[in-house]
Amino acid sequence: MSIDAHIEPLGGKLPSITWRWDPETDILSGAFKASRKVGGLTGSVELSDEQGSVAVLDVADGVICGLDIVVWPEVATTPTLAVPAQLTEGRVVVAKRPSKPGISSMEVDTALSVKTDASESVFHLRIGPERQVEVIRAADHLYIEVDEQGTLAGFWLTGVPQFPEFDDD
Q1: Using an 8 Å Cβ cutoff, are 10 and 24 in contact?
Q2: Which tens digits make up the pLDDT trace of 46-68?
Q3: What is the pTM of this model?
């Protein structure tokens, strides 16, 4: 299943996002305040695959404004990984219409994959197969991919801090 997405002009200053690790659960999360006030789904969209991977999108008034990677797919490490140079700044809207009363979440079954660079500060979460995409800079450290069919295709996370180390004592 795919998620329809369309791009809107940013309409203000580029939001700032800070990534945080939860050391007890290995969840990586970040969010920013959405600047769209015309309505749409407010809640969460859960992406999950057959291997049990789970990513949750935070959505406010239809705009993607956060991401949690809850259960990680197998992570492939590559020596270098960089966000594509050709970018559009904007908002990515996944649900234009307000949700029905009492509905604040959606679940979508799809394939998920993750790559990271050697320093583990850049992550690329892909939804489904590799394909042509437009990369939208939605926040200073969050880039969202939308494919030619107008469906959500992935995310680039930059400025990710090192995972906290535990003291075994």
Answers
A1: no
A2: 999 999 999 999 998 889 999 99
A3: 0.91
